[in-house]
Amino acid sequence: MGYRQQCPRSASDGTGSRVERGLSVGRQRLWRWGVPLAGGLLLLSGCADDSEAGRLAMPEPASAQGQHTLDLWQGAWIAAWITGIVVWGLIFYVVIRFRRRNDNEIPVQTRYNLPLEIFYTIAPVVMVIVFFSHTVRTQNAVLEDEPSNPPDNIVEVTGQQWSWTFNYGLGDVDQKADDDRFDDDFPYQSYVHDGGTGSYIPDLYLPVDETTRFNLRSPDVIHDFGVPAFLMKMDVVPGRVNHYVITPTREGTFTGKCYELCGTYHSRMLFTVHVVSREEYDQHLQDLEDAGLTSEKPLIGGEEAYTQAGLESEGESE
Ligand SMILES: [Cu+2]
Q: In this protein, which residues make up the domain named Cytochrome oxidase subunit II copper A binding (predicted)?
């Protein structure tokens, strides 16, 4: 083709001096080993420290559960980088090693290399299995919410268009009542609550180093209850009670939000999380009680909390 013919050709084409060949081999070695090595070192040095770069942009986990999520995140990045380095290395290797050295040469035409095809079929399957097993293990650790391991506190969370209501129980907790079934059986005898509105951002108080379970309900549409600093979130689905536990590991103030686009004022579904000492937590519940924000049952959006949106009239029209 025209372009190739116009290109000035190196004097070393075909024959090439020893010095030039030596340089070319050196350059190949640099590509083959230097680049992957530099990438690997950069990565490992990044993950070793506790900075934001080391956490690969994840927030610093403020919960025991968040540490598992961070481990999975970092492990997945390391695995992805190793995979990338091997693949890029192989690509550059074959491009350089098996390049056409002069115009009269036709490279070896290899087809149906069975061992190679078996390898590149099995290797991705093994990778998927490894990623999957680590994901399941992390999920089990994060969602460890067994009856044999009851939480210290249970907070009933209601996500409604467009804010949150937090119901804290008063007195002793009855773990058996907290079976998530759609009954009127709640784990505490009475409740205090803090309900947000479109113009009031509610507060969620949690005692540090204690495990709190959130029972999530929605009377209208799907919301998603999450706190970035805890590295945890979960959908709040009408017609069912989702739940997860969090063990905050350090005191402080964090922001929480709705992660599911749920309507016009979705962006107002913010809340402030205060992780405090047990004494401050008790004091906050006392303050809510003194303010008259009490109820016998938690505020969960009434009957509609147990109904799938759009299916309320089921049975009536027939
Ligand atoms: Cu929402």
A: 150-287
Q: Where are the domains of the chain?
A: 18-100+112-142, 153-306
What spacing in Å lies between the alpha carbon of 258 and ligand 1's midpoint?
A: 5
CA 297 to ligand 1 centroid distance, Å: 23
- Compute the distance from residue 234 Cα to the ligand 1 centre, in Å: 11
Name 254's Cβ contacts closer than 8 Å, sequence gap at least 6. Answer: 62, 227, 228, 229, 230, 272, 273, 275
Query: Kind of pairing, strands 270-276 and 232-236?
Result: unpaired
Look at the pTM and tell me if it is higher than 0.90. no
Q: What is the pLDDT of residues 89-125, one digit of tens each?
A: 999 999 998 888 888 888 778 788 899 899 989 999 9
pLDDT, averaged across the chain: 81
Say how many Å lie between the CA of residue 220 and the centre of ligand 1.
10
